[in-house]
Amino acid sequence: xxxxLSEIMRRQAGRKLFREYxxxxxxxxxxxxxxxxxxxxxxxxxxxxxxYTERLLMGGNRIGKTRIGSAEVAIHxxxxxxxxxxxxxxxxxxxxxxxAETNEDSRDILQRALLGAPGEYGTxxxxxxxxxxxxxxxxxxxxVVERIFVKHKSxxxxxxxxxxxxxxxxxxxxxxxxxxxCDELVPMDIYTEALTRLIDxxxxxxxxxxxxxxxxxxxxxxxxAKAGSGIYVKNVTWDDVTHLDPVEKERLWESxxxxxxxxxxxxxxxxxxxxxxxxxxxxxxxxxxxxxxHWAHINGIDFGxxxxxxxxxxxxxxxxDTFYVYDCxxxxxxxxxxxxxxxxxxxxxxxxAWPHDGLxxxxxxxxxxxxxxxxxxxxxxxxxxxxxxxxxxxxEAALIEMYEHMRTGRFKVFxxxxxxxxxxRMFHRKDGQVVAKFDDIISATRYAFMMRRHAIPKPPPxxxxxxxxxxxxxxxxxxxxx
Length: 482
What we know:
By secondary structure, the protein is an alpha/beta fold. The protein has 2 domains: 2-270, P-loop containing nucleotide triphosphate hydrolases (Rossmann fold, 3-Layer(aba) Sandwich), CATH 3.40.50; 281-480, Nucleotidyltransferase, domain 5. It has helices at residues 2-13, 16-20, 40-47, 65-78, 103-115, 188-196, 217-223, 246-255, 261-266, 281-284, 336-343, 369-374, 395-407, 418-426, 440-450, 461-465; strands at residues 54-59, 95-100, 131-136, 145-151, 157-164, 179-183, 204-209, 231-236, 285-286, 296-302, 309-317, 322-331, 352-353, 411-414, 429-430, 433-434, 469-471, 478-480. A hairpin with a 5-residue loop joins strand 4 and strand 5 (157-164). Helix 4 (65-78) crosses helix 5. The protein is elongated. Mean pLDDT is 87; it is low at 4-10 and 469-482.
């Protein structure tokens, strides 16, 4: 009987690719036998492969980076794509490389995730029924796998070559590949060699690591990439997962040296003086609460002409001069209609601040971008975001003021907005200049912050029924928006 139970458990473990990756995880409770699946942010990372050639998952320790990398490799190798998968698909056998720092890391981390422990091959992400052959490497380290041959759904054979960074750049040449997965801190020369292997087959590259070494050359390659470069970054913290024990998280937080905490728990590279908002998330985070009726509201929008469109929903407590971000959104590849509807989420009466590029005209219609949103009955302020004094629309002035509000406890963000905090952690300078990358929601917040003098409290129900309104004086009288 014991042998039968062991065999059943072994076979179940070998089907984790199909069992665990078939549906979205219920994030209201911890993962377990009755709650198998993937987080929404995991789906987002995988599905981004349609649009982005290079993807970086930069996360805290134990958030599941290896799980994501090994699952994607197994999916591409077998051709077994989950129902929710809208990312890149290969309908023919694939050629794949994985990368780890040493032979020991390749064996103990990547190899174990893909195959299972030595002697238990088939219990990892690659099902036993799909493993055709395994070749070991003579590396002075026992049981190090060099290549795995996998049966693809199409009937052909995929292969996975397991490389290390100890092989140096010259060991990363000579192949045309579909997929490369680099785990942890890959040197830049090896990274560029790996990227070159993907050109012929229009392949994809994914990188997973915790940035303990700070802003390395590869980290900056991602964080400072220009729009349209095919680069995607996902930052994941302990707060984004439910499988970590809260008591253990607290214990580890206290045990980690202070200078390592942000990297180990939030996957934040130690940007030092380069960080634009060098304050801990906890200092500005507040639990959600119902916004008092007398507080003034204002939204901010970043149009997303050559990047994702984003919105920030904000409230201002005039009495204490405290600015709150209570909701946000970001979406790429959508139309004006979509973004306009998203911005009406909390009420059509809330004014929306917009950037100077809203004056640009759409080529086919010759209509200004701001007016395209106004035609969708979104309440747009008459002028682009700017201060009402000599500061004009200075980005630096707004960022400095936002930071001062954060330092003095007058800038708060609801704790339920992981996208906002993700951008805040990545927002930095290079050579003294703001790196305008992955800052879509932050930009929308900045526009609302600059124009908070135009924020208004919620009007009477009768006024709301007649569509977007604007205050004439002090938010007390109302007339229809022109």
